[in-house]
Sequence to fold (216 residues):
Amino acid sequence: MIITIDGPAGAGKSLAARQLAKNLGFRFLDTGAMYRAVTLAGLRQKINWENTGELAKIAANLSIRLSDARVLLEDEDVTAAIRTFEVTTLTRHAADNLGVRERLVELQRAFAEGKNLVTEGRDQATVVFPKAEVKIYLTASDEVRAQRRYKDLLARGERVTLPEVLKKQMERDRRDLQREIGGLRKAENSIEVCTDRLTADEVVAKLEQLVRAAEK
Fold:
């Protein structure tokens, strides 16, 4: 069984998907981490971000492995490094790059082959796994999402302001919605869940209830 969880940044997808997978005994696929890893590789190689071919070439030859809660880039643990504000801001170059997207979609489908999987991202239900058995669209208000991201960045030692985070989030939302390939879309048969007034545990419980109902 494949369970997709799509939605905008800050809706709580990664945390919910990871815990849901654990509760169900499924594998977890963090697709956002893959785009971040490609971005980090480009940042380290000091590429010209306007030259889409450079980043696509990097992605084509990059080794990215997801192991439990860790992200390995060429066998280096970059779990923390890919979550910085700088990488988050630059990840749009990977997300908007057709060559990068095609390569990562290949890797995502290969990762899922023969597995029970919970996967999260922007295009999992619409592009990567259109035949997934359970499709969930997780969302939250702009303010709630920005607050969550702001607190997360502060906890990581980043020096940012809430207005700055909200501005970047709105820019990211606009790009995600306007992206022709792999843009943020709610699949027709996705179940929408708003997380504004729910704790993390309540979100996971609600999602697990939806999955259990689909299994019957």
In short: The chain has one domain: 2-211. The CA atoms of residues 20 and 204 lie 6 Å apart.
